[in-house]
Specification:
Shape: elongated
Oligomer: single chain
Low-confidence stretches: none
Order of helices and strands: HHHHHHHHHH
Structural class: mainly alpha
Radius of gyration: 19 Å
Helix content: over 70%
Largest sheet: none
Number of strands: 0
Mean pLDDT: 88
């Protein structure tokens, strides 16, 4: 195998870890297995990650980054009204997480273990997502769809509102029920954001 650049090695470690975490679960995956999959020494692993927990958080952050990139593409779609863009930005990451959760029940332990560390781990992405939401809100205000006093404050409130739906969420079970609950809440929010008729 050709010698990999450091960034390629890091990505390969994340690829292999993600596969093992989704397939076998976090607790049943060892650093030894991941480095064997990549073909590097355990000492080399620690040049990239401090621990298996650090690897787990990096895996989740990369997965969330992919979702964010999809959201960025979506908001460029001029055919979608602001409310649909906003609905997708707020719901898509949560539903993708639940679908992953249902398809790979082994990953539940990882999501629960990472839950408290995620706000810090994902801080940069959360801020970028808030900027996307703020932009969509401003677009909606300019087009006469939304009315609110402060776009950044409204974006933050929407983030807080949907944050409680992240797994594990005990109020309803199943992705369809979660999606329905989120849409019900957002329908109420959009009624409140709707600009008065002229």
């Amino acid at each position: 195998m050709a010698r990999l650049l450091p960034e390629e090695t890091r990505e390969l470690l994340l690829d292999r870890a993600e596969h093992r975490f989704w397939t076998f679960g976090f607790k049943k995956t060892t650093v030894d297995e991941v480095v064997a999959d990549v073909g590097i020494s355990k000492g080399s692993f620690y040049q990239f990650f401090e621990s298996k927990d650090d690897l787990m958080l990096a895996t989740i952050a990369r997965w969330y980054q992919r979702i964010f990139e999809e959201q960025q593409s979506l908001i460029k779609n001029s055919q979608l009204p602001p409310a649909e863009k906003l609905r997708h930005i707020l719901i898509a990451p949560i539903l993708r997480t639940y679908r992953q959760y249902e398809a790979h029940p082994e990953v539940q332990d990882m999501i629960i273990m990472a839950h408290n560390a995620l706000p810090t781990t994902l801080q940069s992405l959360i801020q970028q997502q808030l900027a996307l939401v703020t932009g969509v809100l401003e677009e909606g205000r300019k087009s006469g769809h939304f009315a609110f006093a402060d776009a950044a404050h409204t974006a933050q409130a929407l983030h807080h509102m949907t944050h409680g739906f992240w797994p594990p969420y005990a109020c309803v079970q199943g992705t369809q029920a979660i999606e329905q609950a989120l849409n019900d809440v957002l329908d109420l929010v959009f009624q409140g954001l709707a600009a008065p008729a002229r």
